[in-house]
Amino acid sequence: HEKLPPFPADFLWGSASAAYQIEGAWNEDGKGPSVWDLYTKIPGTTFKETSGDIAVDHYHRYKEDVQLMAEMGLKSYRFSVSWPRIYPHGTGEVNEAGLAFYDSLIDELVAHSIEPVLTLYHWDVPQALQDRYGGWESREIIEDFNQYCITLYKRFGDRVKYWVSLNEQNHNTNHAYMLGMHPPAVKDRKRFYEANHIMFLANAQAIASFRKHVPDGKIGPSFAYTPSYPASSSPEDMLAYENAEEFTSYWWLDVYCRGEYPSIPYRHLKQQGLAPVFEEGDQELLKQGMPDFVGVNYYQTITYEHNPLHGGVSSGKMNNTGQKGSNESTGIPGLYKTANNPHVEKSNWDWNIDPIGLRIGMRRITSRYDLPIFITENGLGEFDKLESEDQVHDEYRIAYLKSHLHQCKQAIADGVELIGYCSWSFTDLLSWLNGYQKRYGFVYVNQDEEGGKDLRRIKKDSYFWYQDVIKTNGENI
Ligand code: BG6
């Protein structure tokens, strides 16, 4: 290795999770149902009908989990608050027991010098708001989300200085309104763009309120960034790649970081009658939502090729992050379609393994917006094996994380301002659609789709590796 500058002394070495995927206790202590609580109980929606009713029982075992973080030396921990745990009916009365749970979790983290990074929304809309007005499809949600956020700012703003507004709005809405795989499981491009517009407004409003309530804090959205590549240097493929980057990345990033939609895709969608409707005040509100950092959730890159207007793939799907078996090409006629990239390895879940793609992505964001970056997710989902004497030899995960961290170091040398890195995930957790077979954690949890296991925590080899990385501030990366 050439000699690279070290990671900053205050680098936020971390790891991440999301409420629905770890907490369980889905109907305890006054919590209301979220859209996921109901959706996963519809037969056929998830692998082996697995729900997060119990998940990895973090709600009852958070002290043990934080203890494991402390022992590892973790500097930051990203978690999400379950909105219906705080507002069981979406609005109205606050559930004090819900707030008390997060109070204790935050106190526990702070007591161990672990910086809490709080995500306001990681996909679990209160079912009450879905029933009342269709969730993200109604502008009423902007104020309801704002009130929920203000409640958290007031309660936790003294101890929590890093906040993530929306987690992967792009991935979540793509699955909810284009692919029909997340609740409310719709396939409708018009509704997709409308719901996104409302989420952009809610994001901006939540950030505007944040400035008043937590003036010394930092906030930004977490974007599922899957940087695009062209399949070849043919001008047609280059155009397809440019289309993909505009429609599947800058559509979100430009609104977050500039308060404006990128003009080419906006005009294109307007001609087709698909552009979101602007009401009075929208433009001003979007401008109030400028973030302090861009949260990047990175798993892989995607390659695109020319897709003729007539013929070729006609699925109309937009692919942001591939699912297993994503070999099937998807795209939008006239714009782009996905292609295989023979230059990168693939995981056992058919996801591209591309560490340099992370560096490329961070550089694109830096060049375009010149904002600090916080990697809020990066990791490898694999079929881990629990060996005798409670060992998990996940050297493939160590290799994945190490190569990605090396590109982070390179990116810092390139001029990217990277403030932290949260791996996905700390403990194993429920993969929304894939049960427990796809594991990401440093800590194995003895849980499966059948349930009934003892849920004990087991340190994987990667746990000890990351412990050393933190201790040496990434010196050997
Ligand atoms: C991100 C989400 O999309 O990817 C996480 O923010 C999720 O919540 C992670 O678990 C991995 O996805 P999957 O489908 O492999 O579990």
UniProtKB/TrEMBL annotation:
GO terms for molecular function: hydrolase activity, acting on glycosyl bonds. PROSITE patterns: GLYCOSYL_HYDROL_F1_1, GLYCOSYL_HYDROL_F1_2. Keywords: Glycosidase, Hydrolase. Its EC number is 3.2.1.-. InterPro entries: GH, GH_1_N_CS, Glyco_hydro_1, Glyco_hydro_1_AS. It is an enzyme of class 3 (hydrolase). The active site is at E377. Belongs to the glycosyl hydrolase 1 family. This is Glycoside hydrolase family 1 protein.
